[in-house]
Amino acid sequence: MSNQLQVKEMAEIIVMKAVNAENELYAAQVREKLEKEGVFLINLLSSPGSGKTSLLEATLEEWGGNHRCAAIEGDLFTDEDARRLERFGIQVVQLNTQGSCHLTANMIVKALEKLDLKGLEYLFVENVGNLVCPASFNLGEHKRVTLLSVTEGNDKVKKYPKAFQTAHLMIVSKIDLLEATDVDLEGLREDFRHVNPSGEFLTLSVKTGSGLGGWLEKLESWKREIKFSKASVQKPPA
Amino acid sequence: MHEFSLMESVIRIVKEASQNSDLVRITGITLVVGKLSGVNIEALRFAFEVLKKEEPLIKDSVLEIEEKEGQGKCSICDKIIPVWHYDLLCPDCGMPMQVAGGDEFYVKSITGERDG
Predict the structure, then answer these.
(1) What's the complex ipTM?
(2) Residue A197: inside a domain, yes or no?
(3) Which pTM value belongs to this model?
(4) Residues above pLDDT 90, as percent of chain A
(5) Residue B2 · residue A133 · CB < 8 Å
(6) Would residue A127 count as lying in a domain?
(7) pLDDT tens for each residue of A62-73
(8) Cα–Cα distance measured from residue B32 to residue B107, given in angstroms and rounded to the nearest whole number
(9) Nearest-CA residue of chain A relative to B25?
């Protein structure tokens, strides 16, 4: 620090600005753009390998073109997931974060520019496989869904609470493998209720199709409930 | 580990606030971090020390962090108790509790030299 002839005036400025304010701004942009077109946005969270892409494949397969869908795929590298979903003839945007552990709302703003939103009903965002960071970033979604496969064990809701606390729905996947694990489904449901009393809970297997109907009904009833006007914009998860 | 990108956002907020108030050299930045915000303070401090070297405006500044305790509110009896994680049950009712505080993360204030 140099001593200058003139003493500088020191000042304290009160800022009071949330660090995620920037992301919230982009999230609001996403929401506004989608609501104008009547598109319902779902943000899918889970660890890598819990079956997010498989769930989307099963959803598209079951619907068989009855609903107009699109997907945004988040991965560190490769377009493998995008190619898996393109087989169903839907629009897919692959986002590669090149090492970053989560998607942010400004990435979704950019991805929307690549999609034709006219007539679209459902837009699925498959977040980067990670139960930690994606939980802190609102993407402007109408609903957040967090998957946990039975092979991940009993303790994950307690260990990674924010991903479950901010979800509207928790899905336990791969229940066809339940017998091979020591997972207690009722225990998982109870752990989830503790961190998220108002959250909904589903179990399913895309292999056997068990529980898949409940998921599809959930998607349709959610979309029916949403009134696409600015007044319906809900508070983003903290 | 997204504390680097969070710290980049902090620095953007600090730059904008100093431009708006004609501060030319920042000496102090105060953040408020709730214990339920999911932000790791140690990683945040590390990110600050790395990133500030690249920013002339803040290279001599000191980072102050005020931690806020987590608070939970019972969905039945409205009792408020200090909590430190999300797995919350009311000690009286045994019912799940809602987070009522301690999940905040914001830039509170900056101190610096004014232009002129």
Answers:
(1) 0.90
(2) no
(3) 0.85
(4) 81
(5) yes
(6) yes
(7) 999 899 999 999
(8) 6
(9) A10
